[in-house]
Task: inverse folding
């Protein structure tokens, strides 16, 4: 089935109007910024977050050396990473079409992304064709485990380690394979012992963690859109596109502001999105909307120092490293210790879902 929205999606200005432009950052608190930052800097979480960011894993490169427009270098930067490529995209779209669209959108900006591969979804000849296309296009190919086990209480270290190693032959043949590992569901272990044992394993294999600074619920919006299409193959998809783009912009804006509040400076961001039909259809629209909102897309590159030196490990409470959602953790601590947040209130997943549910009946 070829969908009505095939081809370049014309992006409507309406979306950016509905999302608070992050460049007009919502500094609504009357609290003095210096005092606020001073308080923040006294907290261990800030130290930990700084350390983590200074050594952030797979993160956006420093951007163009000689930007054509001098103002360009001041724009916040963000790189794309995409998780869970699959040869089963949806009943409405084959993987070949999804691949063509996603790679086409990236090529349109000459942008290099990083693909985090979960072997069970690609362990067949078509999977190799999918990966070859990404490899040939110059994108990074990284490890996301074989079976996508969540490294929490039900998964032992032994199981998780074996599953990580099982994925190695899947990505080994590709020239652009890079030793970055992304934890499924961004969970880094439910005990300090499990976390540390796996860190040692990663180190022994010269691996680093593929961190994320901006995560979102694109997978959920895709799920709802697919359900809608099952009910009505001719359902209008534009409202889902608008919702997705607004949601991603909102998340990026939130995390950017939070990092500014925490660190007092701009950091290069890394966006996590998933290999789904929705992103195949609307990646181009997402990228255009981010540019319009002031962001600059940059290549995902490899720049990382380990964050698990002995000293930082002691000062980095275990619960803060359970997942890659470091900013979310940091936020809860910050709000408690430093008074009212300056950052836009966190939109919960319930909010995301509630807004998305309304689309089901349009
Ligand atoms: Zn995943």
Result:
């Amino acid at each position: 089935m070829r969908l009505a929205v095939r081809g370049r999606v014309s992006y409507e200005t309406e979306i950016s109007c509905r999302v608070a432009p992050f460049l007009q950052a919502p500094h609504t608190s009357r609290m003095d910024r210096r005092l606020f930052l001073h308080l923040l800097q006294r907290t261990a979480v800030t130290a930990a977050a700084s350390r983590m960011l200074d050594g952030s894993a797979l993160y956006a490169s420093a951007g163009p050396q000689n930007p054509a427009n001098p103002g360009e270098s001041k724009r916040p930067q963000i790189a794309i990473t995409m998780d869970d490529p699959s040869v089963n995209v949806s009943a409405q779209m084959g993987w070949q079409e999804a691949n063509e669209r996603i790679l086409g959108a990236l090529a349109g900006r000459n942008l290099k992304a990083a693909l985090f591969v979960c072997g069970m979804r690609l362990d067949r000849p078509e999977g190799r064709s999918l990966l070859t296309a990404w490899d040939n296009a110059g994108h990074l190919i990284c490890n996301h485990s074989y079976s996508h086990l969540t490294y929490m209480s039900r998964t032992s270290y032994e199981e998780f380690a074996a599953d990580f190693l099982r994925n190695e032959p899947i990505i080994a043949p590709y020239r652009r394979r890079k030793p970055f590992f992304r934890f499924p569901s961004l969970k880094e272990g439910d005990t300090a012992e499990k976390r540390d044992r796996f860190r040692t394993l990663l180190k022994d294999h010269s691996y680093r963690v593929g961190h994320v600074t901006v995560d979102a619920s694109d997978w959920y919006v895709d799920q709802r859109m697919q359900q809608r299409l099952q009910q009505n193959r001719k359902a209008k998809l534009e409202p889902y596109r608008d919702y997705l783009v607004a949601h991603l912009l909102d998340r990026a804006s939130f995390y950017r502001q939070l990092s500014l509040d925490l660190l007092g400076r701009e950091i290069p961001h890394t966006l996590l999105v998933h290999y789904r039909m929705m992103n195949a259809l609307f990646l181009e629209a997402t990228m255009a909307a981010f540019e319009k909102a002031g962001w600059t897309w940059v290549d995902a590159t490899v720049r990382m120092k380990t964050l698990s030196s002995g000293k930082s490990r002691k000062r980095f409470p275990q619960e803060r490293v359970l997942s890659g959602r470091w900013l979310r953790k940091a936020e809860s601590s910050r709000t408690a210790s430093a008074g009212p947040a300056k950052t836009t209130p966190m939109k919960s997943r319930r909010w995301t879902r509630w807004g998305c549910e309304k689309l089901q009946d349009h």
